[in-house]
Records
---
Amino acid sequence: MKQTILSLENVTVELLSGGEIRQVLQNISFDVFPGEILGLVGESGSGKSVTAAAIMQLLPGGSKAIAGGKILFKGQDLVNKTPAQMQAIRGNEMAMIFQEPMTSLNPVFTIGTQFVDIIRTHKAVTKHEAIQQALNMLKAVHIPDSERIFQSYPYELSGGMRQRVMIAMAQSCSPSLLIADEPTTALDVTIQAQILRLLRTTVQNSQSSVIFISHDLGVISQLCQRVAVMYAGEIVECGRVETILQDPKHPYTKALLHSIPDFSTKGRTLTSIPGTVPDVRAIVNGCRFHPRCAERQEVCSKQKPASITLPENHRINCWQASKERY
Ligand SMILES: Nc1ncnc2c1ncn2[C@@H]1O[C@H](COP(=O)(O)OP(=O)(O)O)[C@@H](O)[C@H]1O
Ligand SMILES: [Mg+2]
């Protein structure tokens, strides 16, 4: 078994919402291997960003929000780290980019000032050296006229340009793990394609592992080697992208595929998944997808689904899939 960079083992997250504690993630498990891009896909509200925040230990309430499980980064459980230890890991060994770069860029400082600050927080270099490194990193993400961008304020840049800057900043400390949370969702299709290409080459050159979060399986399939499908705070299926696209086993994954134009077989009608992602409080027993599932059986509303593992570590949590197997 290959060594993982990151392993989530049965991670359960509880957050306070409207005065009540809600189990937002339930028994999440997945692995990220060195140099791979793992996709995390699911409808809005399925818990993708909360998963990212749990890994970065940025949940409201800190590690107390993690009600169970382990988050092993290079073999060490992040849940037990002190805030100071986590601070050192974030930015050095793990970095994150978001859908809207404006949330992580400070509007009152130039790109250059912020970039030099980041480099000098994590590396013992002179200001002059940091400026040179920042300019080189901007060139590496194909920013034309990097000197001018260096002196610009975030609002003076287009969305695509800001995302390039974020990728450069995130890579400046050569993190082993990069988490990209819907980094292209806010961009036009053509810019989105450029950013995806850039991410792919950046990652190939740096050997970082990536968790690429998107609600769009089409985007995931262009970039990722493996994908974990999330539904209502749980992973329902995980495996190689080709396997998931060609032979999905979980009814939710099948429904997700049929709702994407590119992947529905020709002549087949596009379908939407009836219903909406449930409020997790509403489902006490059974599989969280069962109210919307086309293949549900009696057991699905009563008991948590069995987990089965097919060849190539293709994992499915579903009663129907396990029945077909045995
Ligand atoms: N800070 C928070 N406090 C309480 N509940 C939250 C918080 N952040 C997210 N949630 C809830 O957790 C669930 C998953 O949210 P999120 O991870 O943002 O979904 P996604 O990124 O997949 O769209 C949602 O039901 C959301 O309302
Ligand atoms: Mg999100």
Note: The chain has a mean pLDDT of 90.
---
Amino acid sequence: MATNFKPALIVVDLQEDFCPPNGSLAVANGRDIIPTINTLLSLPFALKIATKDWHPADHISFASNHAGKKPFTDFTTIINPTNAAETYETRLWPVHCIQNTAGAELLPELDISKIDKVVEKGTVKEVEMYSAFYDPCTAIDSAKEGFKTVVVAEGTRGVDQPVTTWDKVKEELEGKGVDVVSMEGEEVAKVRNA
Ligand SMILES: [Zn+2]
């Protein structure tokens, strides 16, 4: 084994608004992954980070901030504030994860004492920010930055289902150099034994 093996864990957006029973953008069975995440948090990762979607009330990703537009089905164009030539289309959502509201809280079942650092994202009104690095997707950006990156399948639920199926997401991740692994796989075992 390489002596410089230094695994980090990023727990992405395990917040009330993304989970039943009260989330405004609840992912079906979102709370089911908590035991998996707590197991991962108990392993000897060198660094454990949790991200929080953390929006101002006038955030660009909320359909209610665009006259006549509906959440889930409508899109808006986002312009890079530092480079107006760079634009991309992003889906619009119901209002969610407003800074300092109950919906933006991390799930209380999470073993928060094990988390070293919380990273807030989506804090700028004009920009959508799905990723802990930049956008649009944390795992893909991590691979792009040169980190060997894996997504633990049991610890993942998709906000876009059934529009985007898990198989499609997996294909995209793997196409960008991110491995999708299981809790039983050798990657997690390697951390267990680190
Ligand atoms: Zn958001």
Note: The two ends are 10 Å apart (CA to CA).
